[in-house]
Every structure is written in C-alpha cells, then in structure tokens.
C-alpha cells in the first residue's frame, strides 16, 4: 500500500467532499453541498492563501489538510495556520495524519514560516495524542466574537 501526500486535483472533488462531510459530522456542524463547493473553490483559487494536501492511499483519498499563511506582527514573521485536518476513521492511527502534518512541516520550512498553529477540541483525545507527539500545546485561550457584538 502506497500513501502519497499531494495537492488536490480537479478529479478529487467528490472524494474530498465525502471526507469533508465526515469532518463536519465529527464536529457536529451542519454543512451543505453548496458550502463544500465554496471551500473547494477557495482551495482551487488559493483564496487568501488557502492551500490543501490530500492523503492518497492506492488511488483513494483517505485524508486532507487545509492550511494557509498568516502574519504574526509581534514576531515580525509569517506562520502557517492549519484550518482542518481529517483522516478517514477506518484508517486513524495508521500514520496518515502524521504524514499530512509532516508534509505541512516541510512546506513551512520551505516557505520560511516561523510556526504552524492550529486548534482542536479538548475532547479530541485521539488526535491530541498525535499532536502532542509533534507539537507543543499552548497556554492560549481561544475566543470567537460575533460581528454583531459591536
């Protein structure tokens, strides 16, 4: 079995959409086909630097990572932000997520990014075991503010 981490191609839309729906289901987020079309277009266009890698196992997509650069004014540097990481539940623990993250580390090194940052749910214990083996959890607390708050 050969695992290849690569940029997505036009022919990957349907398989990627199946995985992305699984990602939304995991986080209990309602998502429509129209929403997936929008995200796919962001990736295809590189909107706001949005990029992706897919995990291809013998011609079948089994995972993905969505990421983009972000400016870090205090550090006067650019970092990479991992928006989404998902692996087919049947293949978790088999190295697919690690391969996607290591590919992202190589991209970060090539781009000169100073850090790769992401968030995850506190109860996502399986993923956190992988993350803890490759990265350092931070003490920062995340907030979301709605536009109508002001």
TrEMBL record:
The reply on keyword Transferase is: yes
Q: Name one Pfam family in it.
A: Acetyltransf_1
> What superkingdom heads the lineage?
Bacteria
Keywords in alphabetical order: Acyltransferase, Transferase
Which molecular function GO terms apply here? Answer: N-acetyltransferase activity
CDD domains in UniProt: NAT_SF (cd04301)
- Looking at the record, the residues that make up the N-acetyltransferase domain are 3-150
What Gene3D superfamilies does this protein map onto?
Answer: 3.40.630.30
Please name the PANTHER family in this protein's record: ACETYLTRANSFERASE, DIAMINE N-ACETYLTRANSFERASE
Q: What name is this protein filed under?
A: GNAT family N-acetyltransferase
Species for this entry? Falsigemmobacter faecalis
